[in-house]
């Protein structure tokens, strides 16, 4: 009486499975809207704080500095919130629901790909807030809507790839506290020791050397080019290569941890 | 030879976690149909065994087959045939009951319309229609369990693993879950159930394996098991601890019965044949001037089964 009768439906493919898990992530946003706090508060805080605090000192005027800073703040905001992906995974595995997903006959990485697709929605909200606020403060993207669109698209690709580091760490971390600590240790140097705030040429040579190989620097250079209408093929290419490498390394690590979680 | 494959067959299956032998060489043959119960205390290895059979964990050594398929090399096939209800509710607390079932129905291949139909059908079958649009975190323990089992049968599984489905439930919710399990079996599914309660295994299972320290220490039908333990247990609570010794002596020597002391210093447990044997025993004790504060006659508890099978109580086992 309770059991299903008739033929069993056909198994679904990898893309459908990922989209269904993406839908789950959106449902979670609907039910727990507080989780959008970080994607809204962070960008507003960062944009206002850095524009008005550094603007006068670094570029002579806040409006001029904003043209330089905003693409970087956009990148920083989204890169910072990628760590919440790890927090979400860490939360999920401590509840039993992951066991159920793992015992389903679907393409296994879809659980995580779906979660990351849901995160892409959060990143888009964040990006819109930063750009919107920037425009109010006087930011003028010379690359127009198309330039901004591609810059955000590139940022989403990079963040999606970077998130796989957090999903791996999400499986290993014993607690959320250790996860937060670890992510700050990684994210602070990555975002601050970059060309987001100042031109690396003003830095001591050892720091400049680090900044120049920092993936975030490449990302910000590529985004600035796109936003200001002078796309730089080299940096875009390098960002895409870095992204592919991140997925190539941390994707399999995450899946190994996912399959072998006790 | 046209033989129906066994639901589960394991050969000396083991799983170690570092030095801990969670499952230490279990060989089982479980036929299809009905409920098979795995009885054991906390930490006996029940969950580890189930997780291996549900393909969530690879064995350290030994082998296992579920519905005739190997649990290591044929995971995908097994996943299409079985479903697992873990010990901790494996539903998403942030979503509503309806969304949880919709999510699973879609993942299992139902189209949008049919997914909704199946989800609503299950919610009504499990008495959750009124709570369909509430987040699961607002559900009671019993409701959560029912949703959890509903989530396991979105498509018809050949075999269902239920890991301690009634642990922590109140008696009413427990009865509801029992009814669900009975109707699943009546509908033709095989259920592998783990439990800490002999009573539960007795109510539901056709056959029971008692496991302890990762090993099977007894296997049989509930009546065989109870027979090996003694079908009735009389528990006597003596009012004065100083008189326990005296009561013990009377029962063991004058009446020649098997009597056991417990971690509770006031309690004596005695295997008795029947009610009249128990009454005469009580008469004997009271006429010796020993005051009995209360007594009960009933089925042996898991602790007493353990005592009979291993000579140790569950508590002593845990100290080891």
TrEMBL record, chain A:
**Residue ranges constituting the ABC transmembrane type-2 domain according to the UniProt record:** 34-261
The upper taxonomy is: Bacteria, Pseudomonadati, Bacteroidota, Bacteroidia, Marinilabiliales
Question: How does this protein lie in the membrane?
Answer: Multi-pass membrane protein
Known PROSITE patterns for this protein? ABC_TM2
The identity of this protein, by name, is: Transport permease protein
Q: Show the GO MF annotations.
A: ABC-type transporter activity
Would I find Transport among this entry's keywords? yes
Q: Which GO terms describe its cellular component?
A: ATP-binding cassette (ABC) transporter complex
TrEMBL record, chain B:
Q: Which Pfam families match?
A: ABC_tran, DrrA1-3_C
Residue ranges occupied by any ABC transporter domain in the UniProt entry: 8-238
Enumerate the subcellular locations listed in this protein's record, separating them with semicolons.
Cell membrane
Name one cellular component (GO) term.
plasma membrane
GO biological process: one example? doxorubicin transport
SUPFAM superfamilies associated with the record: P-loop containing nucleoside triphosphate hydrolases
The family line of this record is:
Belongs to the ABC transporter superfamily. Drug exporter-1 (DrugE1) (TC 3.A.1.105) family.
**Name of this chain's protein:** ABC-2 type transport system ATP-binding protein
